[in-house]
Amino acid sequence: MEETTQGSSRLLNGFAETVSPAGERVAQTATEAKIEAIGFNFYYGTFQALRNINIRIPQNRVTAIIGPSGCGKSTFLRAINRMHDRTPGARGEGQLLLGGANIYGEIDPVKLRRRVGMVFQRPNPFVKSIYENVAYGLRVQGVRDRRVIDEKVELALNRAALWDEVKDRLHKASGTALSGGQQQRLCIARAIAVDPEVVLMDEPCSALDPIATMKIEDLIHKLRANFTIVIVTHNMQQAMRVSDMTAFMLMDSATRAGELIEFSPTAELFTNPKDQRTKDYVTGRFG
Amino acid sequence: MSLKSSQMPNYQRRKVTDAIMRGLVLFATACAIVPLVLIVGYVVVVGGSALNWEFFTDVYQPPMTVTTMDMIGAAPTGDAPFDPNDPFANLDPEALIGAEAGDEKGANILEAPARGGVFHAIVGTLLVTSLAVLIAMPIGILAGVFLSEFPDNSVAIVVRFACDVLSGAPSIIVGVTAYILVVNATNPNTGQPYGFSGIAGAIALTFLMVPTITRTTEEVLKLVPEATREAALAMGATTWYSTFTVVIPTALSGIVTGVMLAFARGAGETAPLILTVLGSNVLVTGLLQPIAALPLVTYRYTESPFPSENTLAWGSAFVLMMLVLLVNILVRIATRNRLRTH
User: Fold this and answer.
1) How many domains, chain A?
2) How far, in Å, CA of A44 to CA of B1, rounded?
């Protein structure tokens, strides 16, 4: 909750600004769903972690997923680029579509992950130079041309607002030599260097201090122009600050399976929730 | 009654117990270090004094040399005929000390000065051990990758158990195995056994090195955070690509340590080499014949009655220690991460 105090004043100002534009944009682009789940279920072995998720995540928007711990928000996020494949017994059922193609069917997971980048909860740069960290995705894709890589690395670091801080030690310093906030921006640069269509962020600021958090949030705002962003956060103020659309998830108390309760434009979800459970959660009555 | 004693009635006793336990731990640590210091110190003092330029550049020289002239001509009586059935009848042992012209004849053979060196053994040890490391490294590292990246399957469990058993197996057993499988095996071209050879020794050392390298590699790869693997996979890397471009480089210094431990162990092994490479007193560079090795020089000449050969044994023990140390330092410099991490 360390962001709450510094966020509260910004919150009120920023909140008023985003209410109407966010609503309009979504209304216009409601048909352009980048990611769409239709009756999607997810299982860890015999345990059902997600039940009947139906959601249309719009293109070039920031979509936040909020909810109490254990509600399946991270499970859903990681299902989008099949990060669960390494977990024995984890499987998805039903339809989870990326640009119309089923993620758990037609798309090869390796190709899928080249289209869907991911930023993790804790910054996880490689023990390589800053340059090689950002160039990694390009090398994975087999790019060999030095000039192309140079260009893309600079572009990605610029977009991640990190270029000026690291440009004189690109090849000399390890990615792990940076501060926590810089490392996370490096991870964002690494993810966007390959021009993915979607960037998934799993609580990207939870290991960062308020100032680093603010920089990442500013960055998310800018990145919206080029990427579809899905961000999981347990911080409601953050969801209000960065997202256009917000999904609220909750664990069913009887079956312990995560369900999608409500999905609306952010302003609407926080000011005028349709579901009583959403209202209880966003007003701090539980969770 | 003071506040201290009223609140902590056992304070004095606990303080004494703490002091006693600390003393015991210190004493045990000292006991553990004493043998190490004694061994290293003794080898450095005795072995180090044997060193000179010739020791590194010359091969083995016997403490005395017997020539045909010694046997037939230089007999003390001068007129006794040479008897082929007893060629040493005319020999005067006192006259044999020193091979070079100008050496004083007639001294006690047990006081003969040390001669020759261990160049042949340095070459032999480097050849055999390097070949063994070259064979064992890819096998061990890849097996370690398998154990760490695919940990929970029946093959991995069996391999892990086998490695633990093998790394604890007495090395003489490994030597006997290599002796039967390689040295004693019949060459189909000649109908004869292959015989002692450097390659047989390298294979025996490989058996000893693979488990060490495998288990160390597995352990250090497990220390690489799961988040690092996920980061690579999330970039669209396949498992093998992420393993070879991210996981192994991250753990490289640990893997190198494992290989170095295996090298040190292999270089110092004696029992398997007695049964496979046999040893040699001349410079041999072909791996298909018996070849010299530093631990074999130590083993063979420690028991020698000639002090000059004893000196050779101590010297080669010292050189062996220094060799392992030197290779260790060189490899560490070569694989050092040159990136700034702060």
Assistant:
1) 1
2) 64
Q: Is residue A287 part of a domain?
A: no
- The Cα of B240 is separated from the nearest Cα of chain A by a number of Å equal to 11
Return residues 68-97 of A near B (CB < 8 Å).
Answer: 81, 83, 86, 88
Give chain B positions within 8 Å (CB) of A128. 246, 249, 339
The predicted pLDDT at position B224 comes to: 93
CA distance A189 to A207: 18
pLDDT at A257: 92
As a whole number, the mean pLDDT across chain B is 86
- Measure Cα distances from B119 to B57, B202, B281, B300, B308 in Å: 5, 19, 10, 16, 16
Return the beta strands (E) in A129-255 as ranges: 198-202, 228-232, 245-251
On chain A, the residues whose CB falls within 8 A of the CB of B237 are 110, 136, 140
B339:A177 CB<8 A: yes
Q: What is the mean pLDDT of residues A261-273?
A: 93
pLDDT for B109: 66
Exposure on the CB side of residue A1, measured as CA atoms within 13 A: 2
Contacting residues of B for A108, CB less than 8 Å apart = none
pLDDT value at B43 more than 80: yes
List, in sequence order, every residue forming a beta bridge with A36; answer none if it has no partner. A56, A97
Instruction: Report the residue count for chain A.
Output: 287
Residue B328 has a pLDDT of 82
- Chain B residue nearest residue A131, CA to CA: B339
Buried b (16+ CB within 10 A) or exposed e, A174-198: bbbbbeebbbbbbbbbbbbbbebbb
In contact, B314 and B43? CB cutoff 8 Å: yes
pLDDT tens figures, A35-61: 999 999 999 999 999 999 999 999 999
Q: Do residues A216 and A184 touch, judged by C-beta distance below 8 A?
A: yes
Residues of A whose CB is below 8 A from B247: none
Specify which residues A116 forms β-bridges with: A198
3-state secondary structure of A194: coil
- Judging contacts by C-beta atoms under 8 Å, the chain B residues touching residue A187 are 231
Report ipTM for this prediction: 0.82
Residues of B in Cβ contact (< 8 Å) with A139: 245
Three-class secondary structure of residue A30 per DSSP: coil
pLDDT class of A284 with cuts at 50, 70, 90: confident
- Residue-by-residue DSSP string for B219-233: HHHHTS-HHHHHHHH
Per-residue pLDDT at A21: 41
Q: Residue A142's domain is classified under what CATH number?
A: 3.40.50.300
Name which of B234, B241, B339 is nearest A117 (Cβ-Cβ): B234
DSSP-based three-state secondary structure for B193: strand
A209 belongs to a structural domain: yes
Average pLDDT of the residues in A215-223? 90
Which domain range does residue A12 map to? Answer: 2-282
Under a CB-based contact definition with an 8 Å cutoff, are residues B223 and B144 in contact? Answer: no
Inter-chain CB proximity A110 and B340 less than 8 Å: no
Nearest CA-CA partner of A191 in A133, A138, A117? A117
Q: Which residue has the tokens 């490695």?
A: B163
Binding-face residues of A in 138-177 toward B, CB within 8 A: 139-141, 169, 172-174, 176-177
pLDDT tens profile B45-86: 988 888 888 888 889 888 776 666 666 655 445 556 666 677
The answer to whether the Cβ–Cβ distance between A113 and B341 falls below 8 Å is no
Q: What is the pLDDT of residue A20?
A: 39
Would you call A189 an interface residue with chain B, using a CB distance cutoff of 8 Å? no
